Amino acid sequence: MTATAHRTRHLVLTGASGTVASLVARRLAPTGHRLTLTGRTVPGDRPRDATAGPGAAVRYLVCDHEDPASLREAFRGADAVLVVTNDPTRPQQDRNILRAALDASVGHLVKLSAAAVHDPGADDLVTSWQRENERRIRACGIPWTMIQPRSFMTHALAWAQDIRARSATAALHPDSRNACVAPEDIAEVIALALTDDVHHGRSYQLTGPQALSAQDQTRILAELLGRPLTCRALTRSEARAGFLRRYPPAMAEALLLSADRQAAGAKSATGDTVERLTGRPPTSFTRWATAHLHRFV
Ligand SMILES: NC(=O)c1ccc[n+]([C@@H]2O[C@H](COP(=O)([O-])OP(=O)(O)OC[C@H]3O[C@@H](n4cnc5c(N)ncnc54)[C@H](OP(=O)(O)O)[C@@H]3O)[C@@H](O)[C@H]2O)c1
């Protein structure tokens, strides 16, 4: 820990109602740093669990990545901004954020990117978009930190309804493995990066402690729930239809390609970055699922 870690900072979290930034907010709220939490749906729908502790200064600001003026307003006086965007089909949002950060003379950008940017041959829409976002941020002149996680363990929550109703899970390549990481671990690393200049210019690939397949995760959930579960292989068209229910066609195709890369073994390597930065081992899927078991019951 360096001396810079103890200075009170104004930290802006974009995507504050989302999976990772809401956990970053919860972690930082009691620390005394000034937080601005942004999204299209705040302050009416506050980020879950971002409860301010004693002495915390948290404000919620409505901000749309399509609206440069709202971004400039949100970033004014920011020592650091967590950049979370989630729509590769609208890259103007990423350009708007960078432009506003430059206009507001933001001190540090912490970018939630993806481990896939390092995968050879990964040129799907999502990975190409994240690579280009990283390239622009690295070149912009503002100090940066890249956060590059593997798949979030929270993907298993997509099975919750089928587990409750049919004791079943499903995946396109059920035996392919991914070194998936707990969003709580990602949030802890981001909180460190936002509050200590020692992380400037660093890229952190974040994984869980082991690579698991959908079948492995189903087995773990079955053990924790104390009842049998089955894991079914989706056909390609079933998987595509599932993605299309949630994403535009270009995203659905990117996610299919990403699943194929996983089947080819591209996502199974684990690393020690979470442990090196936090001083404790990364959260296992068993531990994550135990903490979230109520969602599957
Ligand atoms: N899922 C994975 O396994 C995985 C793995 C590696 C990397 N990643 C990366 O992680 C990032 C997503 O993180 P996440 O899952 O924590 O986010 P998320 O849950 O998808 O949340 C993103 C938030 O952004 C806000 N948002 C969306 N459009 C907006 C707009 N136009 N203006 C302002 N706010 C907007 C939304 O809140 P409002 O509705 O309130 O605006 C939403 O809550 C992506 O860049 C993805 O590539 C994901």
From TrEMBL:
Transmembrane segment boundaries: none
Protein name, as recorded: NAD(P)H-binding protein
Lineage of the species this protein comes from: Bacteria, Bacillati, Actinomycetota, Actinomycetes, Kitasatosporales
Pfam families (UniProt xref): NAD_binding_10 (PF13460)
Signal peptide, first to last residue: none
Ranges of residues in domain NAD(P)-binding: 15-196
